Amino acid sequence: MNSLLNALLVIVLALNLFALGTSRIMTVIKVVSLQGILLGIIPLIMEEHLTLAAIFSAAAAVILKGTVIPTMMMRAMRDVQIKREMEPLIGFLPSMLLGALATGFALLFASALPLASEHTTPLLVPASLATIFAGFILLTTRAKAITQIMGYLVLENGIYIFGLLLVGAMPLVVELGALLDLFVAIFVICIIVNHINKTFSSLDTRRLSALKE
Amino acid sequence: MTLTLLLFPFVAALIAWLIPSNRWRPWAIPVAGIIHFPLTLAAVFFADQPYPFEWIGLDPAGRLVLLLISIIYLITSFYLAGYLHYRLERPNRIFVTCLLCLLGTMTMITWSRHLGIMWVSIETTALCTAPLIYFNKTPRSIEATWKYLLIGFVGIALALLGTLFLAYSALHAGFEPTLVLSELLHNAPQLSKPWLHAAFVLMLIGYGTKMGLAPMHTWKPDAYGEAPGAVGTLLAGCVTSCAFLCILRIYQICSAAGEFAFISPMLLFMGLLSMAVAGIFMVGQQDYKRMLAYSSVEHMGILILGLGLGVPALFGTLLHLFNNGLTKGILFLTAGNIHRSYTSTSTDVVRGALRRLPVSSALFLTGFLAITGSPPFGPFISEFSILNASFQTEHFIVGALFLIFLLIIFIGMGATVLLVVQGDDPVTAPRTAYREGFLTIAPPILLLVLVLALGLHIPAPLNDLLNSAVKFLENQP
User: What tens digit of pLDDT does each residue of B356-415 get?
Assistant: First the structure.
């Protein structure tokens, strides 16, 4: 079971680097949705006896992150002229290298953390830290509003991985509440992105600079 | 009754959504306030069963914040009805619905005794407030909303990570992973220390972003500057108080774990930094609404500073939460009136408001005196009490810096406020059809009466409530 889990987590980590290295926004959306689907499946292979609640929350996560959110993002992309991320603060290759470096450090750092004995072998903790970091890079170095949201989703995925260690702490109500919030958040953000595009004729958030001291 | 209080704002939101008339819909806001307030009073003062469920219950800290929210909401709701009456050209369906949902989620935060539910509710407040900030639909308000959402979400995500770390600290110590407050408090001394420390730092940064502590405050001047004044009141008085309640929860867990010595320097540092940053940006500030946002950063700093001083300052800190919320109401509501009349928030345009809007301007000026800690208003008592505690706990440098920052802020804020209210009303300044009416004047007057009353005498029920909250946060039975 652990080897399968680790294999999936390695794919998740590879997807992080892929999302960091590409300039096509469409590809980033697809990569992040694939990551969401993989993470939705993981709780099912981790649990020895599946409960109905676990299946339900996994299905909700897969549907939301795998289909609903990507569809919403692609619809938001439809009206936009530029399909590529232009002039990121840190280039695509350097940010990919930075992501790889962070993954390495996360592995080293996690081995130094005081973890419960059953959590030392699977890659959950380092994968979580590396994914959070990758999300931060996307969020802070990209200029297009949609790529920044993708960064937020990767960040959220990283936190979700950590949550996998804590089966039982988060009741179903809270998990579904968090998913519902995520859905509404993306919905609201899509509306705002649409208005940014209409008002500023661009999705470049560097144009949002009227408010400052 | 619990369920009524928790659910009716959402029902009201649904009803408001279904009301077809743009003219009558805003009245759903005061109606909800009128229902919410007596239910709150009953829950706060007459509830014999404190925790009906394990996850949902009203403890003394929650009671205090719930009472504050309900008072501010009730008073502001009438102003909002008046405000939306002036803005009938704009559809207000989403605005009213989101406002009622906001009341519901804030009530939920005060009732939640499960840190997961608390977190979900806080995230929902961010979603409910975004359309409120975006009400004017100008390019500037889009920018403000975008920054508010993005910074807010990252902050809330960090708070979630901190919450998970807290559950892991229980798991690492050999307990079932849990986020139920009473269980965490009960097991606090045994929780795994490194994870507890990490959880505290992340939750302070995460919920601190929602409160608007420096250096995570950057969304605040933008959002408060662009949102309608009454929304600023709810953001600065209610939403920040809810975020502060979340920090109180982790503070209480850390204190119960005997880790106060670890968290105290961080709280003091964040508090002083927020006051310093607010002071720097308030001196020479040309936008009076942004100035109010920095004043909010300052007072969030004072609250966190008070928390860092520990038990001797707790009473003053909780009282300051009340004073700050009510006084911010006066300032934001009257600033909204001035903005409505001049259509500008810049002191280049807005001069001599005392001649044009005598009541609003006089209230604005008095609100400034109150918020900067002049006697005989409420904030003077609470700030003095925090200062007193800093000397009592031998934090002399902290106390001295606290005074210096208060002085700088008084001068900086005073310069801007006087520019707005004094002098002649320039002929070139734009003038709208807005006239001071009962609905936009009575709410800030009522708030001022409350702030003045709190400065002269703290009523016995509130005093008992504050004392029981202090006792609760000290983890005394």
Answer: 999 999 999 999 999 999 989 999 999 999 999 999 999 999 999 999 999 999 999 999
A211 and B226: CB-CB below 8 Å? yes
Report CA dihedral (B4, B9, B10, B14) to the nearest 10 degrees. Answer: 120
Structure tokens belonging to residue B474? 């000290």
Give the closest-approach CA distance of B190 to chain A in angstroms.
15
Integer Cα distance of A116 and A112 in angstroms: 12
User: Considering chain B, what percentage of its residues have pLDDT values greater than 90?
Assistant: 81
A195 touches chain B (CB under 8 A): yes
pLDDT-based confidence at B293, cuts 50/70/90?
very high
Chain B neighbors of A170, CB-CB under 8 A: 116, 167, 179
Burial (CB count within 10 angstroms: exposed 0-12, middle 13-18, buried 19+), residue B77: buried
Report DSSP state, residue B295.
H
Alpha-carbon distances of B465 from B116, B224, B239, B293, B470, rounded to whole Å: 26, 30, 21, 29, 9
pTM for the predicted model, two decimal places: 0.95
Nearest Cα to B251, choosing from B314, B322, B169, B302? Answer: B314
CA distance B262 to A155: 28
Q: Quick one: pLDDT band at residue B49, thresholds 50, 70, 90?
A: low
Q: Is some CB atom of chain A closer than 8 A to the CB atom of B139?
A: yes
Closest CB to A181 among B124, B170, B194: B124
Question: What ipTM does this complex have?
Answer: 0.94
* Dist CA B35 CA B110 (whole Å): 17
Q: Where are the domains of chain A?
A: 2-207
Give the pLDDT confidence of A87-105 residue by residue, as tens digits.
Answer: 788 888 999 999 999 999 9
Q: Choose among A168, A169, A192: nearest Cβ to B149.
A: A192
Q: Is A10 on the interface with B (CB under 8 A)?
A: no
Alpha carbon of residue A197 to chain centroid = 23
* Residues 79-138 of chain A whose Cβ lies under 8 A from any Cβ of chain B: 113-116, 132
